[in-house]
Amino acid sequence: MTARPESPYPMLPVPEALEVVLAQAHPLPAQTVPLAQALGHILAADVVAREPLPPFPASVKDGYAVVAADGPGDYPVVGEVTAGRVADFRLSPGTVAYITTGAPLPPGADAVVMVEETERLPTDDGTPRVRIHARVKPGDDVRPVGVDVAAGQQVLAAGEYIGPAEVGLLATAGVTQVPVYPRPRVAVLSTGDELVEPDQPLGPGQIRDSNRAMLLAAVAANGGIPVDLGIAGDSQEALEAGVQRGLAEADILLSSGGVSMGELDLIKPLLEHAGTVHFGRIHMKPGKPLTFATAQVAGRKKLIFGLPGNPVSSLVTFYLMAVPAMRQMAGWPNPHLPRVQAHLAQPLPLDAHRPEYHRATLRWEPSLNQGRGGFLATSTGSQASSRLLSMRTANALLELPQRAGRLEAGDVVTALLIGPLG
Ligand SMILES: Nc1nc2c(c(=O)[nH]1)N[C@H]1C(S)=C(S)[C@@H](COP(=O)(O)OP(=O)(O)OC[C@H]3O[C@@H](n4cnc5c(N)ncnc54)[C@H](O)[C@@H]3O)O[C@H]1N2
Ligand code: MOO
């Protein structure tokens, strides 16, 4: 009797595999990008404001600049200051000046009365007059110099994510060349003789290549720069050429297909040859044959994920392993997918042999937790690795334990977020 074929690769638990991946993923060398391209990057240096904001005492309201000690009464309006101008006069006690929101307070004034607390009076000599109804204190409705941002204050720290507010703070500080960690370039190669381009009719035995379009989109959606390597057939030469091109052009290479036990599953041996294979199987479903390798190319370490060919397996393992690696290379201090608790909307069968990452759609349900609210997880249905419809509308992967039996509706599980909670 001959020995049964068996994979030589130990099956790593997912948390251990993720540690192995993250130990290899290092932030890319920092660069400078124009402010208009900074969104979505991680800042690589602290940002300090040189000037205070506001740089002058500024009115908070549309109304009248006054000397607070004057109190309510009728006053001549001796001038006006609108935002962007400065007063060419000094306000004396017993007079007021018209002012708009954001305009510099004229010298001599120490407070603002909003227009709703005043009344225009008829004029006899051409000088406008106003009745002030409100009593104000010095400083009322005035933003002192530096109240929003002090000169020398640190407004952003290295390691922070640049969202819209941070773009605004960079603009406030006058930083138009922004030090950031670049987005990783991620190349995507589909493998398999059965694959044709999505615009092709299907011949016998053929299917359309869905993984490449999907993974290129997933790379872009997760902050990477996608690089399309096309389809490589199941030959050593074609695969080798695809892998070499990916390693030359990108920081991370994603291949899909050809990593399990078939005679044409050539990716593992090819990666053993091209670099170091760190693991060749993980203890989970779907995506058991995920293979992770690194290669040194022109002095730079490249990461390679041999994703399983089944469309669901490739996308799930992309989220679990490649997204954290991409984030770490892009400078994220915490590269992990966010995790929340969710209540099951229906019973779910468990797998006795592997922990499962069950695709589900999470939404906020106000009636959960005795009316305090919580996330309700609705399964996407049959979880076959080939059924991409099981990823449709999924914004979470439920972390189901390896065990016989099932979970019941209402049971609480942890969920990794892979999409917006819309
Ligand atoms: N004897 C064993 N067979 C298999 C095992 C095993 O342990 N022993 N593992 C199974 C598991 S789990 C998975 S997952 C798959 C992964 O297989 P491969 O990575 O080798 O992928 P392929 O065999 O090339 O393809 C699998 C499946 O996916 C389709 N595919 C591949 N690429 C694409 C693409 N770009 N777009 C759409 N569909 C694609 C392909 O046609 C196959 O149907 O292996 C099991 N087998
Ligand atoms: O792990 Mo495979 O992904 O079950 O189909």
UniProtKB/TrEMBL annotation:
Domain MoaB/Mog: 187-328
E.C. designation(s): 2.10.1.1
Pathway involvement of the protein, from the record: Cofactor biosynthesis; molybdopterin biosynthesis
Pfam families cross-referenced by the UniProt entry: MoCF_biosynth (PF00994), MoeA_C (PF03454), MoeA_N (PF03453)
GO terms for cellular component: cytosol
Catalysis: reaction(s): adenylyl-molybdopterin + molybdate = Mo-molybdopterin + AMP + H(+)
Cofactor: Mg(2+)
CDD domains: MoeA (cd00887)
GO MF entries: metal ion binding; molybdopterin molybdotransferase activity
GO biological process: Mo-molybdopterin cofactor biosynthetic process
Alphabetical list of InterPro entries matching this protein: MoaB/Mog-like_dom_sf, MoaB/Mog_dom, MoCF_biosynth_CS, MoeA-like, MoeA_C_domain_IV, MoeA_C_domain_IV_sf, MoeA_linker/N, MoeA_linker/N_sf
Keywords: Magnesium, Metal-binding, Molybdenum, Molybdenum cofactor biosynthesis, Transferase
Keyword presence, Metal-binding: yes
UniProt family annotation: Belongs to the MoeA family.
NCBIfam families in the cross-refs: Glp_gephyrin, molyb_syn
Function: Catalyzes the insertion of molybdate into adenylated molybdopterin with the concomitant release of AMP.
Name listed for the protein in its UniProt record: Molybdopterin molybdenumtransferase
Taxonomic lineage: Bacteria, Bacillati, Chloroflexota, Caldilineae, Caldilineales
